[in-house]
Design a protein that fits this description.
Blueprint: E1 3-13, E2 20-24, H1 25-30, E3 34-36, E4 43-45, E5 50-60, E6 66-74
Antiparallel strand pairs: 1-2, 1-5, 3-4, 5-6
């Protein structure tokens, strides 16, 4: 029998160059942490630049390894 694990993620977008990033929602939305874009170097507030939020479900093997991943819920912004 496989176990399951979940992760609430948020997609954010750099307001200058448009590069996308995926972060844990607690970090991006709850903390509203500032991040630095790896492409253009701009520092911006992640909470203000959210484009999507969803829940991922991971199927975990008995060895604790991820086997499959799927989107199980899109969360309204």
């Amino acid at each position: 029998m496989r176990e399951k694990a979940w992760l609430d993620i948020t997609v954010i977008r750099c307001p200058v160059c448009g590069r996308y990033y995926a972060e844990a929602s607690w970090y991006a939305i709850e903390l509203g942490a500032d991040v630095e874009c790896g492409e253009c170097g701009t520092e911006f507030n992640s909470k203000k630049h959210v484009t999507d939020r969803l829940m991922l479900e991971f199927q975990i093997s008995k060895e604790g390894k991820i086997q499959e991943t799927e989107i199980v819920k899109r969360i309204s912004l």
